[in-house]
Amino acid sequence: MDGRVFIIGLGLIGGSLALCIKKEHKDSFIIGYDVNKEQTRLARMLNVVNETAETIEQGAKNADLILIATPVKETEKVLQILECIQLKSNVIISDAGSTKKEIVQLAGNLKNMGITFIGGHPMAGSHKTGVTAAKAILFENAFYLLTPEDHILEEQLHKLQNWLSGTKARFITITPEEHDYLTGVISHFPHIIAASLVHQAEKTSTKQKLIPSLAAGGFRDVTRIASSSPEMWRDILLHNKDVLLSLLDDWQEEMKKVAEMIAAENSEEIFNYFFYAKQFRDELPQKERGAIPSFYDLFVDVPDYPGVISEISGYLAKEEISITNIRILETREDINGVLVISFQTEEDRTRADLCIHKYTNYETSEGL
Ligand SMILES: NC(=O)c1ccc[n+]([C@@H]2O[C@H](COP(=O)([O-])OP(=O)(O)OC[C@H]3O[C@@H](n4cnc5c(N)ncnc54)[C@H](O)[C@@H]3O)[C@@H](O)[C@H]2O)c1
Ligand SMILES: O=C(O)C(=O)C[C@]1(C(=O)O)C=C[C@@H](O)C=C1
Protein backbone atom coordinates (compact mmCIF):
# COMPACT_ATOMS: atom_id res chain seq x y z
CA MET A 1 0.00 0.00 0.00
CA ASP A 2 1.17 3.55 -0.48
CA GLY A 3 0.14 6.57 1.52
CA ARG A 4 1.20 8.73 4.44
CA VAL A 5 1.37 7.05 7.83
CA PHE A 6 1.59 9.18 10.96
CA ILE A 7 2.82 7.56 14.16
CA ILE A 8 2.31 9.40 17.45
CA GLY A 9 4.60 8.09 20.20
CA LEU A 10 7.92 6.81 18.92
CA GLY A 11 8.75 4.33 21.65
CA LEU A 12 9.07 0.54 21.66
CA ILE A 13 5.63 -0.06 20.12
CA GLY A 14 5.34 2.98 17.85
CA GLY A 15 8.86 2.37 16.55
CA SER A 16 8.22 -1.34 15.99
CA LEU A 17 4.97 -0.63 14.12
CA ALA A 18 6.80 1.90 11.94
CA LEU A 19 9.44 -0.72 11.07
CA CYS A 20 6.76 -3.32 10.25
CA ILE A 21 4.90 -0.92 7.94
CA LYS A 22 8.12 0.21 6.22
CA LYS A 23 9.18 -3.37 5.60
CA GLU A 24 5.86 -4.40 4.06
CA HIS A 25 4.75 -1.21 2.28
CA LYS A 26 7.84 0.13 0.57
CA ASP A 27 5.94 3.03 -1.04
CA SER A 28 4.53 4.35 2.20
CA PHE A 29 5.90 7.49 3.80
CA ILE A 30 6.16 7.43 7.57
CA ILE A 31 6.03 10.55 9.68
CA GLY A 32 6.62 10.37 13.42
CA TYR A 33 5.91 12.59 16.39
CA ASP A 34 6.94 12.28 20.03
CA VAL A 35 6.81 14.76 22.91
CA ASN A 36 10.26 13.58 23.87
CA LYS A 37 12.74 15.32 21.56
CA GLU A 38 15.44 12.70 22.17
CA GLN A 39 13.12 9.86 21.06
CA THR A 40 12.21 11.92 17.99
CA ARG A 41 15.88 12.46 17.15
CA LEU A 42 16.71 8.78 17.65
CA ALA A 43 13.75 7.63 15.52
CA ARG A 44 15.00 9.77 12.66
CA MET A 45 18.64 8.79 13.16
CA LEU A 46 17.79 5.06 13.21
CA ASN A 47 15.65 5.48 10.07
CA VAL A 48 12.58 4.20 11.87
CA VAL A 49 10.59 7.03 10.26
CA ASN A 50 11.11 9.00 7.04
CA GLU A 51 10.38 12.34 8.64
CA THR A 52 9.37 13.81 11.96
CA ALA A 53 6.63 16.39 12.59
CA GLU A 54 6.89 19.39 14.91
CA THR A 55 3.26 19.08 16.00
CA ILE A 56 0.45 16.52 15.88
CA GLU A 57 -1.47 18.80 13.53
CA GLN A 58 1.42 18.94 11.05
CA GLY A 59 1.71 15.16 10.86
CA ALA A 60 -2.00 14.33 11.00
CA LYS A 61 -3.63 16.59 8.44
CA ASN A 62 -2.49 14.73 5.29
CA ALA A 63 -2.20 11.26 6.81
CA ASP A 64 -3.99 8.18 5.42
CA LEU A 65 -3.28 6.17 8.56
CA ILE A 66 -2.69 7.50 12.08
CA LEU A 67 -1.38 5.18 14.81
CA ILE A 68 -1.25 6.32 18.42
CA ALA A 69 1.35 4.50 20.52
CA THR A 70 1.54 6.60 23.67
CA PRO A 71 0.75 5.56 27.28
CA VAL A 72 -3.04 5.22 27.47
CA LYS A 73 -3.73 8.37 29.53
CA GLU A 74 -1.71 10.35 26.96
CA THR A 75 -3.80 8.72 24.22
CA GLU A 76 -6.83 10.49 25.72
CA LYS A 77 -5.09 13.84 25.15
CA VAL A 78 -3.96 12.89 21.65
CA LEU A 79 -7.55 11.96 20.69
CA GLN A 80 -8.75 15.36 21.90
CA ILE A 81 -6.12 17.08 19.75
CA LEU A 82 -7.05 14.99 16.70
CA GLU A 83 -10.71 16.00 17.09
CA CYS A 84 -9.72 19.61 16.46
CA ILE A 85 -7.79 18.96 13.24
CA GLN A 86 -9.16 18.96 9.69
CA LEU A 87 -8.22 15.35 8.84
CA LYS A 88 -8.54 13.54 5.49
CA SER A 89 -12.09 12.20 5.33
CA ASN A 90 -10.95 8.62 4.58
CA VAL A 91 -8.18 8.51 7.21
CA ILE A 92 -8.06 5.46 9.49
CA ILE A 93 -7.01 6.05 13.09
CA SER A 94 -5.96 3.25 15.41
CA ASP A 95 -3.97 2.95 18.62
CA ALA A 96 -1.76 0.37 20.30
CA GLY A 97 -2.79 0.96 23.91
CA SER A 98 -3.06 -1.89 26.39
CA THR A 99 -6.61 -0.91 27.38
CA LYS A 100 -9.54 -0.38 25.07
CA LYS A 101 -12.83 0.50 26.78
CA GLU A 102 -11.98 4.08 27.81
CA ILE A 103 -10.12 4.78 24.58
CA VAL A 104 -12.88 3.57 22.28
CA GLN A 105 -15.41 5.58 24.31
CA LEU A 106 -13.31 8.72 23.98
CA ALA A 107 -12.90 8.15 20.25
CA GLY A 108 -16.70 8.49 20.01
CA ASN A 109 -16.22 12.16 19.14
CA LEU A 110 -14.21 11.19 16.06
CA LYS A 111 -16.99 8.78 15.10
CA ASN A 112 -19.49 11.68 15.32
CA MET A 113 -17.27 13.60 12.91
CA GLY A 114 -17.37 10.69 10.42
CA ILE A 115 -13.76 9.66 11.11
CA THR A 116 -12.86 5.97 11.35
CA PHE A 117 -11.30 4.87 14.63
CA ILE A 118 -10.52 1.20 15.28
CA GLY A 119 -9.02 0.31 18.65
CA GLY A 120 -5.96 -1.94 18.43
CA HIS A 121 -3.56 -3.76 20.75
CA PRO A 122 -0.61 -5.87 19.60
CA MET A 123 -0.26 -8.49 22.33
CA ALA A 124 3.50 -8.65 22.43
CA GLY A 125 6.06 -6.36 23.87
CA SER A 126 8.81 -6.16 26.38
CA HIS A 127 9.84 -4.58 29.67
CA LYS A 128 12.10 -2.32 27.59
CA THR A 129 11.02 1.14 26.46
CA GLY A 130 12.04 3.60 23.79
CA VAL A 131 12.69 3.54 20.08
CA THR A 132 16.11 1.92 20.45
CA ALA A 133 14.36 -1.27 21.59
CA ALA A 134 12.02 -1.25 18.55
CA LYS A 135 12.20 -4.16 16.13
CA ALA A 136 10.18 -5.32 13.16
CA ILE A 137 10.00 -8.86 14.48
CA LEU A 138 8.39 -7.91 17.80
CA PHE A 139 4.83 -8.93 16.91
CA GLU A 140 5.51 -12.00 14.77
CA ASN A 141 3.03 -14.78 15.68
CA ALA A 142 1.49 -12.62 18.37
CA PHE A 143 -2.21 -11.91 18.62
CA TYR A 144 -3.20 -8.45 17.48
CA LEU A 145 -6.49 -7.54 19.14
CA LEU A 146 -8.80 -5.16 17.26
CA THR A 147 -11.99 -3.72 18.72
CA PRO A 148 -14.03 -2.24 15.83
CA GLU A 149 -17.44 -0.91 16.78
CA ASP A 150 -20.57 -1.99 14.91
CA HIS A 151 -20.55 0.93 12.47
CA ILE A 152 -17.06 0.05 11.15
CA LEU A 153 -17.20 -1.43 7.66
CA GLU A 154 -15.40 -4.70 6.80
CA GLU A 155 -13.54 -2.79 4.14
CA GLN A 156 -12.08 -0.34 6.69
CA LEU A 157 -11.10 -3.17 9.00
CA HIS A 158 -9.35 -5.01 6.16
CA LYS A 159 -7.57 -1.86 5.13
CA LEU A 160 -6.17 -1.47 8.65
CA GLN A 161 -5.15 -5.14 8.78
CA ASN A 162 -3.48 -4.71 5.42
CA TRP A 163 -1.50 -1.72 6.69
CA LEU A 164 -0.44 -3.82 9.70
CA SER A 165 0.29 -7.03 7.76
CA GLY A 166 4.06 -6.55 8.22
CA THR A 167 3.61 -7.30 11.92
CA LYS A 168 2.95 -10.94 10.91
CA ALA A 169 0.59 -11.00 13.86
CA ARG A 170 -2.76 -12.78 14.01
CA PHE A 171 -5.71 -10.46 14.14
CA ILE A 172 -8.58 -11.14 16.48
CA THR A 173 -11.68 -8.97 16.71
CA ILE A 174 -13.33 -8.58 20.12
CA THR A 175 -15.31 -5.94 22.01
CA PRO A 176 -13.47 -3.36 24.13
CA GLU A 177 -15.07 -4.84 27.27
CA GLU A 178 -13.93 -8.38 26.42
CA HIS A 179 -10.51 -6.97 25.64
CA ASP A 180 -10.11 -5.28 29.01
CA TYR A 181 -11.28 -8.35 30.91
CA LEU A 182 -8.99 -10.77 29.03
CA THR A 183 -5.91 -8.58 29.16
CA GLY A 184 -6.72 -7.78 32.78
CA VAL A 185 -6.41 -11.49 33.61
CA ILE A 186 -3.39 -12.47 31.51
CA SER A 187 -1.40 -9.26 31.34
CA HIS A 188 -2.38 -6.43 33.68
CA PHE A 189 -2.91 -8.47 36.85
CA PRO A 190 0.36 -10.46 36.49
CA HIS A 191 2.22 -7.13 36.27
CA ILE A 192 0.73 -6.10 39.63
CA ILE A 193 1.77 -9.40 41.19
CA ALA A 194 5.30 -9.16 39.74
CA ALA A 195 5.71 -5.67 41.19
CA SER A 196 4.32 -6.83 44.56
CA LEU A 197 6.83 -9.71 44.74
CA VAL A 198 9.65 -7.25 44.16
CA HIS A 199 8.29 -4.97 46.89
CA GLN A 200 8.11 -7.90 49.29
CA ALA A 201 11.72 -8.87 48.56
CA GLU A 202 12.83 -5.26 48.86
CA LYS A 203 11.20 -4.85 52.29
CA THR A 204 12.83 -8.06 53.52
CA SER A 205 16.20 -7.03 52.14
CA THR A 206 16.60 -4.26 54.72
CA LYS A 207 16.86 -6.96 57.40
CA GLN A 208 18.28 -9.78 55.30
CA LYS A 209 21.27 -8.53 53.35
CA LEU A 210 21.58 -11.74 51.32
CA ILE A 211 18.18 -11.30 49.65
CA PRO A 212 19.37 -9.33 46.55
CA SER A 213 22.16 -11.83 45.86
CA LEU A 214 19.90 -14.83 46.30
CA ALA A 215 17.08 -13.33 44.19
CA ALA A 216 18.05 -15.27 41.10
CA GLY A 217 16.47 -18.03 39.01
CA GLY A 218 12.75 -18.33 39.68
CA PHE A 219 12.50 -14.89 41.26
CA ARG A 220 14.06 -13.27 38.22
CA ASP A 221 11.87 -15.25 35.81
CA VAL A 222 8.66 -14.33 37.56
CA THR A 223 9.55 -10.65 38.10
CA ARG A 224 11.10 -9.70 34.72
CA ILE A 225 7.99 -7.72 33.86
CA ALA A 226 8.38 -5.63 37.03
CA SER A 227 11.10 -3.79 35.09
CA SER A 228 8.49 -2.37 32.69
CA SER A 229 7.64 1.32 32.28
CA PRO A 230 5.97 2.69 35.47
CA GLU A 231 4.23 5.39 33.42
CA MET A 232 2.68 2.83 31.08
CA TRP A 233 1.49 0.62 33.94
CA ARG A 234 0.15 3.50 36.05
CA ASP A 235 -2.05 4.46 33.12
CA ILE A 236 -3.20 0.87 32.46
CA LEU A 237 -4.24 0.36 36.09
CA LEU A 238 -6.18 3.64 36.08
CA HIS A 239 -8.01 2.63 32.89
CA ASN A 240 -8.81 -0.95 33.88
CA LYS A 241 -9.71 -0.18 37.49
CA ASP A 242 -12.94 -2.24 37.85
CA VAL A 243 -11.57 -5.43 36.29
CA LEU A 244 -8.39 -5.24 38.36
CA LEU A 245 -10.16 -4.56 41.64
CA SER A 246 -12.34 -7.60 41.06
CA LEU A 247 -9.30 -9.76 40.20
CA LEU A 248 -7.55 -8.52 43.35
CA ASP A 249 -10.54 -9.69 45.42
CA ASP A 250 -10.40 -13.14 43.78
CA TRP A 251 -6.65 -13.32 44.34
CA GLN A 252 -6.99 -12.49 48.04
CA GLU A 253 -9.56 -15.26 48.40
CA GLU A 254 -7.19 -17.61 46.60
CA MET A 255 -4.28 -16.66 48.89
CA LYS A 256 -6.48 -17.26 51.94
CA LYS A 257 -7.10 -20.80 50.65
CA VAL A 258 -3.36 -21.32 50.16
CA ALA A 259 -2.69 -20.08 53.69
CA GLU A 260 -5.29 -22.54 55.03
CA MET A 261 -3.78 -25.47 53.10
CA ILE A 262 -0.35 -24.71 54.52
CA ALA A 263 -1.58 -24.10 58.07
CA ALA A 264 -3.48 -27.43 57.96
CA GLU A 265 -0.42 -29.16 56.42
CA ASN A 266 -2.82 -30.58 53.81
CA SER A 267 -0.20 -32.20 51.60
CA GLU A 268 -2.70 -33.53 49.06
CA GLU A 269 -4.23 -30.10 48.43
CA ILE A 270 -0.81 -28.46 48.31
CA PHE A 271 0.36 -31.04 45.75
CA ASN A 272 -2.77 -30.53 43.66
CA TYR A 273 -2.37 -26.77 43.77
CA PHE A 274 1.00 -27.06 42.03
CA PHE A 275 0.03 -30.06 39.91
CA TYR A 276 -2.95 -28.36 38.24
CA ALA A 277 -1.08 -25.08 37.82
CA LYS A 278 1.76 -26.96 36.11
CA GLN A 279 -0.67 -28.87 33.91
CA PHE A 280 -2.42 -25.71 32.67
CA ARG A 281 0.83 -23.78 32.25
CA ASP A 282 2.54 -26.62 30.36
CA GLU A 283 -0.39 -26.82 27.96
CA LEU A 284 -0.28 -23.13 27.02
CA PRO A 285 0.55 -22.72 23.34
CA GLN A 286 4.30 -22.14 23.27
CA LYS A 287 4.59 -20.79 19.76
CA GLU A 288 2.03 -18.08 20.20
CA ARG A 289 3.53 -14.99 21.65
CA GLY A 290 1.37 -13.24 24.18
CA ALA A 291 0.59 -16.42 26.11
CA ILE A 292 4.18 -16.86 27.21
CA PRO A 293 6.36 -14.18 25.68
CA SER A 294 10.08 -14.22 24.91
CA PHE A 295 10.68 -17.48 23.00
CA TYR A 296 11.88 -19.35 20.92
CA ASP A 297 13.88 -21.38 23.45
CA LEU A 298 16.09 -24.36 22.80
CA PHE A 299 17.10 -26.50 25.79
CA VAL A 300 20.47 -28.21 25.52
CA ASP A 301 21.67 -30.85 28.01
CA VAL A 302 25.29 -29.98 28.53
CA PRO A 303 28.04 -31.37 30.74
CA ASP A 304 28.75 -29.10 33.65
CA TYR A 305 32.16 -27.67 32.85
CA PRO A 306 33.48 -24.10 32.57
CA GLY A 307 33.41 -22.78 29.03
CA VAL A 308 30.38 -24.73 27.83
CA ILE A 309 28.46 -21.52 27.06
CA SER A 310 31.27 -20.16 24.88
CA GLU A 311 31.64 -23.55 23.18
CA ILE A 312 27.99 -23.60 22.10
CA SER A 313 27.80 -19.90 21.26
CA GLY A 314 30.97 -20.36 19.20
CA TYR A 315 29.28 -23.03 17.02
CA LEU A 316 26.23 -20.78 16.57
CA ALA A 317 28.40 -17.79 15.67
CA LYS A 318 30.26 -19.91 13.11
CA GLU A 319 26.93 -20.53 11.33
CA GLU A 320 25.82 -16.92 11.82
CA ILE A 321 22.80 -17.77 13.96
CA SER A 322 21.87 -14.87 16.24
CA ILE A 323 20.74 -15.52 19.76
CA THR A 324 18.85 -13.18 22.07
CA ASN A 325 19.77 -14.84 25.35
CA ILE A 326 21.78 -17.76 26.69
CA ARG A 327 21.85 -19.04 30.24
CA ILE A 328 22.38 -22.14 32.38
CA LEU A 329 19.10 -23.17 33.96
CA GLU A 330 20.37 -25.52 36.60
CA THR A 331 23.75 -26.89 37.58
CA ARG A 332 24.36 -29.42 40.29
CA GLU A 333 27.30 -31.72 40.72
CA ASP A 334 25.28 -34.88 40.12
CA ILE A 335 23.34 -33.82 37.03
CA ASN A 336 23.99 -32.20 33.69
CA GLY A 337 23.36 -28.51 33.28
CA VAL A 338 20.61 -27.31 31.03
CA LEU A 339 21.55 -24.51 28.71
CA VAL A 340 18.60 -22.37 27.57
CA ILE A 341 19.21 -20.46 24.36
CA SER A 342 16.59 -17.99 23.13
CA PHE A 343 16.09 -17.00 19.50
CA GLN A 344 13.98 -14.39 17.77
CA THR A 345 12.46 -16.76 15.23
CA GLU A 346 11.48 -20.38 14.92
CA GLU A 347 13.74 -20.66 11.88
CA ASP A 348 16.77 -19.59 13.96
CA ARG A 349 15.90 -22.18 16.59
CA THR A 350 15.63 -24.94 13.99
CA ARG A 351 18.98 -23.94 12.44
CA ALA A 352 20.55 -23.84 15.89
CA ASP A 353 19.23 -27.29 16.68
CA LEU A 354 20.81 -28.69 13.50
CA CYS A 355 24.05 -26.82 14.19
CA ILE A 356 24.37 -28.19 17.75
CA HIS A 357 23.78 -31.73 16.48
CA LYS A 358 26.41 -31.19 13.77
CA TYR A 359 29.17 -30.23 16.21
CA THR A 360 28.20 -32.11 19.39
CA ASN A 361 26.25 -35.07 20.68
CA TYR A 362 24.38 -33.02 23.29
CA GLU A 363 20.66 -33.69 23.52
CA THR A 364 18.32 -30.85 22.68
CA SER A 365 14.60 -30.17 23.16
CA GLU A 366 12.12 -27.35 22.69
CA GLY A 367 10.72 -27.62 26.19
CA LEU A 368 11.57 -29.17 29.53
N1 LIG B 1 5.53 -2.32 26.13
C1 LIG B 1 4.71 -3.29 25.82
O1 LIG B 1 4.97 -4.45 26.11
C2 LIG B 1 3.43 -2.96 25.11
C3 LIG B 1 2.83 -3.95 24.32
C4 LIG B 1 1.65 -3.63 23.64
C5 LIG B 1 1.07 -2.37 23.79
N2 LIG B 1 1.67 -1.44 24.59
C6 LIG B 1 1.06 -0.11 24.66
O2 LIG B 1 1.69 0.70 23.69
C7 LIG B 1 1.78 2.04 24.12
C8 LIG B 1 3.22 2.50 24.05
O3 LIG B 1 4.01 1.72 24.89
P1 LIG B 1 5.59 1.56 24.66
O4 LIG B 1 5.97 0.28 25.28
O5 LIG B 1 5.94 1.85 23.27
O6 LIG B 1 6.13 2.74 25.60
P2 LIG B 1 7.43 3.63 25.36
O7 LIG B 1 7.65 4.32 26.66
O8 LIG B 1 8.53 2.86 24.77
O9 LIG B 1 6.93 4.70 24.28
C9 LIG B 1 5.92 5.63 24.49
C10 LIG B 1 6.31 6.92 23.77
O10 LIG B 1 5.21 7.82 23.80
C11 LIG B 1 5.74 9.13 23.97
N3 LIG B 1 4.67 10.01 24.42
C12 LIG B 1 4.14 10.12 25.67
N4 LIG B 1 3.15 11.04 25.65
C13 LIG B 1 3.05 11.51 24.39
C14 LIG B 1 2.21 12.46 23.75
N5 LIG B 1 1.27 13.10 24.42
N6 LIG B 1 2.41 12.70 22.43
C15 LIG B 1 3.38 12.05 21.74
N7 LIG B 1 4.21 11.15 22.29
C16 LIG B 1 4.03 10.87 23.60
C17 LIG B 1 6.86 8.95 24.95
O11 LIG B 1 7.76 10.05 24.91
C18 LIG B 1 7.48 7.64 24.46
O12 LIG B 1 8.51 7.86 23.53
C19 LIG B 1 1.16 2.07 25.51
O13 LIG B 1 -0.17 2.48 25.44
C20 LIG B 1 1.21 0.63 25.97
O14 LIG B 1 0.16 0.36 26.88
C21 LIG B 1 2.84 -1.70 25.21
O1 LIG C 1 6.74 -9.28 27.52
C1 LIG C 1 6.47 -8.34 28.26
O2 LIG C 1 7.32 -7.73 28.87
C2 LIG C 1 5.07 -7.90 28.39
O3 LIG C 1 4.69 -7.64 29.47
C3 LIG C 1 4.25 -7.78 27.20
C4 LIG C 1 2.77 -7.52 27.44
C5 LIG C 1 2.15 -8.71 28.20
O4 LIG C 1 1.67 -8.54 29.31
O5 LIG C 1 2.17 -9.81 27.65
C6 LIG C 1 2.58 -6.27 28.23
C7 LIG C 1 1.65 -5.36 27.93
C8 LIG C 1 1.06 -5.28 26.62
O6 LIG C 1 -0.13 -4.62 26.58
C9 LIG C 1 1.15 -6.50 25.86
C10 LIG C 1 2.10 -7.41 26.14
Automatic annotation (TrEMBL):
It comes from the Bacteria. InterPro entries: 6-PGluconate_DH-like_C_sf, ACT-like_dom_sf, ACT_dom, NAD(P)-bd_dom_sf, PDH_C, PDH_N, Preph/Arog_dehydrog, Prephen_DH. Residues 297-368 form the ACT domain. Its EC number is 1.3.1.12. Coiled coil: none annotated. PROSITE patterns: ACT, PDH_ADH. Pathway: Amino-acid biosynthesis; L-tyrosine biosynthesis; (4-hydroxyphenyl)pyruvate from prephenate (NAD(+) route): step 1/1. It is an enzyme of class 1 (oxidoreductase). It catalyses: prephenate + NAD(+) = 3-(4-hydroxyphenyl)pyruvate + CO2 + NADH. It holds the Pfam family PDH_C. One of its GO terms (molecular function) is prephenate dehydrogenase (NAD+) activity. Keywords: Amino-acid biosynthesis, Aromatic amino acid biosynthesis, NAD, Oxidoreductase, Tyrosine biosynthesis. The keyword Mitochondrion does not apply. Residues 3-292 form the Prephenate/arogenate dehydrogenase domain. Belongs to the prephenate/arogenate dehydrogenase family. This is Prephenate dehydrogenase.
